[in-house]
Here is the input.
Amino acid sequence: MDRTLNQPESSALSVQYSPTEETKLLENPPRFTWMAADSGERGYMLQWSTSASFEEAATIMAGPVKYPLYTPDVVLDPGFYYWRYAAILGKGELSEWSRVRSFKVEASLPVTPLPDPIDRYRMSREDHPRLWLNSDQIVAFRKRLHEDASYCSWQLFYEGSVLPWLDRELIAEPLPYPNHVRVAKLWRQMYMDCQETLYAIRHMSIAGVILQDRLLLNRAKEWLLHVCSWDPEGTTSRDYNDEAAFRIAAAVAWGYDWLYKELTEDERRLVREVLLRRTEQVAYHVIEGSRIHTVPYDSHAVRSLSSVLVPCSLALLFENERVAEWLNYTMEYYSTIYSPWGGADGGWAEGPMYWTTGMAYVTEAFNLLRNATGVDYYKRPFFQRTGDFPLYCFSPDTTRASFCDQSTLGDPPSLKTAFLMRQFAGITGNGTYQWYYEQIRARESFEEADRKFYNYGWWDFRFDEMMYLHDFKEVQAVEPAHMEPVKWFRDIDWVAMHASPTKPEEHIMLLTKSSRYGSVSHSHGDQNAFVLHAYGEALALQSGYYVAFGSTMHLNWRRHTRSKNVLLFDGKGQYSGRDKAYNLEATGQIETAWHKDGVSYSRGDATAAYQQEVPYLRRFVREYYFVDDAYIFVVDSVDFDQPAALTWLMHTQYEMELNGQTFRAVKEKAELLGRFVYCSSGELELSQTNQYENVDMDEIEGLPEEWHLHAVSGAAMSHRLVTLLVPMKRAEEKSVTCEVEDGDEVVRLWFTYEGNTRAIEVRKS
Here is the structure.
């Protein structure tokens, strides 16, 4: 038998071999990941050792491990280690061992082992329900409710999220798209119908069991059996409409689990078969189709671990061997690769709205797992810090002041983002997260939030409120008086700069990014771009509206560099197409970021982001200086292999005043004055338009218009451009003067504001 082990090279698109000599471990034990070698393999054996030669007394053997990801169930002593793996071949024989890699375990790391699959479900109960509350907890909940009718906001949940479904007509199985071609409006209506079906089954089942209410139990059962009559291979299958599929699978899981005692044996068999098939569809796509353990950048597949595989597998656990395999895969993924969108700093490369969606489902899944298995993923470093991401990059008083796909269409951060911040306050005890929650909760009621499609079709706040109040203790809010003026999320290369962040009428926020994630998934071609929010209004925004994934607005405008506050070269931008390999090559990098003596600074290099479209670009570095909490200057350094023109872009909601080398955007509360104070290739030609290229305007009917500034240079081999931006309150005048000394090698500039002068140098080569 050929025992050769295929060891594929990892790529930007794939998981990495980890840990290695360069890995800085953040938790103990380390997480092992490697590239799957061959579809014919039957799993792997893994070894780690304090001996480079893997002497038996110094070596631990783990396995068999079915997939190429593993978290030990033991904590390692501090020290230096070596590791390797081998594939299991036919008849149980092993391939040759892989290349040996090494790593170092430091002392005092967070302790986060994962129980071995043999022991993982020892504390799990075999009786139903298993989702959220078990039978003993139901008795305790019922007792508390008899003592206090307001316990866990029960009355709010019962009246607003249970009773409305009692007399509601059963929702019909969704019809197919015309000619089976996806239509955004029908796609959304389909998943909204399925979300309502989930609400009806889950909420009446829970309320019926807790209250021992026969009317609710019978009606919940009627809904459940009705949904189980739908074709699992039809319009709500994973391959037809995955959002619909996720919701129906969850609905059947909650119904089966909580109504188990209400079902006859034949009914249980029917519901179990439907649930198993719907779970299998998702599991197959995740593990065999998308293979997120090898290529992790499939947003929906990763989310479906939480929305489908956890609740469905827990409901079916002990009743089917494949279910335990799917749940084991999910739990290993959470412990190793999760999250593919961020790292040690808690950032989320898909942006704050997809942070909201991802965290909404993963926290619910973690809460279910913690209650059912005792495994607590919140101890992992990412989850201890990820509340910082909305705090700095999605401030509660801002609008349109962040990056990536955002379905809020210009609204402030959503109530669900606030709920999640409260969740992380409960997890970490961090009072600033609770403060964030209270800022948004004070301005938005459940009724107002429910009227927004991006809430109602995804979550029920009364249900979330009840679960949180039962599962976590309230945390005292703490105003974040000492937020960092510059927050650099190194894991995703976003930089947030803030002045007066707790005072909306004074708050200035400048956000920039230049990320290694490029334009993959819900990220865009916006490396080195910025957004600016000041004095209660968005002054420089990323343009367009996320009306639907795959819409013409999404594909032809919003994902592209021309919709961002950054540069085009010869009218071309960063790669923003659908090839994931190119998306992950179209990267940027924040080289440094700091705050010192009243100056906040960042420097990003986005050269690689343009290479697919502008191969003759040799260098594009952009620097941001936010000075004295008052004004900003942006320095662009661009070099080519052939003469080329650049276009400086900025987008705002109102038509601008253009005058020579200046522009002014005036809004209701604030305004922005911009001036091109130096350009090595001569004066720029300024123009503006309120049109979008190649966009079906029916998609954005009724939404506010936007204006797009284009400042175009002449062609040159190199460009050095310095732009002054002065955000002001409406009718306020800030006087910022600039003197320029244009030398042979260096340009020197002096900016003066309120008697304070700042000097910078821009090198020409």
In short: Residues 184-211 form the longest helix (28 residues). The chain is about 30% helix and 20% strand. The radius of gyration is 28 Å.
